[in-house]
Specification:
By secondary structure, the chain is an alpha/beta fold. It has five helices and eight strands. Helix 3 runs parallel beside helix 4. The longest helix is centred in the first third of the chain and has 17 residues.
Length: about 200
């Protein structure tokens, strides 16, 4: 796929938004990141590249989680930094809760009728909460399979069994699909940001 990146363009505040949630160094760290870190990083990079390459690109918003002291995403620590540096016109929203709209100005940046394309981490926390909040606002929400991820989860209440990350990711996709989120595959990305 060849895409030419347009460096200076006016953002689109009403039609389409690419929301990158918690695409931070700690989540994609080579040793301690999510299990699917290599493929998810590559897929998000491809989506971001295509979005930036469009003649009429979407508004691209980077959401960054700010953890507590000693968390991997504690502000101003290596794990807190964004993996893909925002361009000058791309807003960065710092959040402290799973729902990226809660306690931030994200709702002021995204028009209630905008189509919101979501990628990032973690599937069962910030992705689920933010997609649900966007639906409740009236936004059309699209989640890209293979461009969101989480960690394996130890089920302490269930004898310490482990639910694998890919199982959790599929569960969240099923829940969000039932709620009204549209799920797309990576093969559909080249057409995703075209004028439709």
């Amino acid at each position: 796929m060849s895409c030419h990146i347009v460096q200076h363009h006016p953002p689109c505040f009403t039609c389409r938004v690419l929301l990158l949630i918690d695409v931070q160094a700690g989540m994609l760290h080579e040793r301690s990141g999510v299990p699917s870190r290599q493929s998810v990083r590559s897929n998000i990079e491809r989506i971001l590249h295509c979005a930036r390459s469009e003649k009429h690109p979407p508004l691209i918003i980077h959401v960054r989680n700010s953890g507590e002291v000693s968390d991997p995403d504690e502000p101003n620590t290596p794990g807190w930094h964004l993996v893909f540096p925002p361009l000058p016109h791309e807003p960065v929203i710092d959040k402290r809760k799973n729902n990226a709209f809660d306690g931030t100005n994200l709702g002021e940046l995204i028009h209630p009728t905008a189509e919101v394309i979501v990628v990032g981490m973690q599937s069962e926390y910030c992705i689920r909460a933010t997609c649900g909040a966007a639906l409740a606002r009236g936004n059309e929400v699209i989640l890209i399979r293979g461009a969101h991820a989480t960690f394996d989860r130890v089920e302490i209440w269930n004898g310490g069994t482990v639910t694998k990350a890919h199982v959790l990711e599929r569960q969240v996709e099923a829940e969000l699909d039932d709620a009204g989120v549209s799920l797309l595959d990576m093969e559909e990305v080249p057409q995703l940001f075209k004028d439709r």
